[in-house]
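INFO batch 0412 | record 1 of 1 | parsing
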Amino acid sequence: MDIWYTENHTDHVRMSMRVDKQLASVQSDFQRIDIFESVEFGRIMTLDGLLMLTEKDEYIYHEMITHIPMATNPNIRNILVIGAGDGGTVRELVRYPSIEHIDVAEIDEMVVELSKKYLPFTACGFDDPRVDVHIQDGLRFVRKVENEYDLIIVDSTDPFGVGEGLFTKEFYGNCYKALKADGILVNQHESTFYTSYANSMKRAHSRIKSFFPIALVYQAHIPTYPSGHWLFGFASKKYDPRTDLQADWWNSLGIRTRYYNTILHQGCFAIPNNVRDALRESET
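INFO prediction complete | emitting tokens
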């Protein structure tokens, strides 16, 4: 039997990969969760039919969303991760012995449980004693917090359905309040290649920069994400990741990565003109 997983990137563009078998299909209180074994990309997870990660390229996303802020401020001790039920972001963070505590606010417990069962290559960090998983809406969780975190990472789905509230002005304002005086906010920032994604990116960036004095965008190549060109947002009350990079400190840790390095750290903020133009068009 010839089975393919297909995702619509736009009404006119699709991405497909051959699937060997389906490992899980669960309808949670929030979304449908499917896990497949694919031929080329290994195990993959989809939420409501949209690809969240693949075993073959997830490391790119998770390394870039974590090591950029960590290499900018070596004094990060207390972290909030919103979303990230697959565990990949946590896996990268627990590699730092200097981190003291990580709160994870994930709305869907089934994502965490299925990741532990079927995606051990990402979920392996949940067992670290410094990690507390809170099965809560990240939007509500962050409302209750003030001046507590050195770093907030928003590892969210796209800005509709379950993840919609994590792209609002209220949410970014609450993140600002929850961060300490030198706090950093990093989020997945969509893409500019297709119009619908570009509009989401522009709205998110405009809302973030209305709170943070430093608001930048950086990029990575993630083959299975729409267009392959993906963006992240870096916002801070104090640190500029281009000039405050602590390369010697980070390299001394001996953390082995497959995508991130401190030379790439500086280069990923050199964004192309089409992204620069989109940022100038940002609107609330």
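INFO post-check: The chain has ten helices and twelve strands.
INFO record closed
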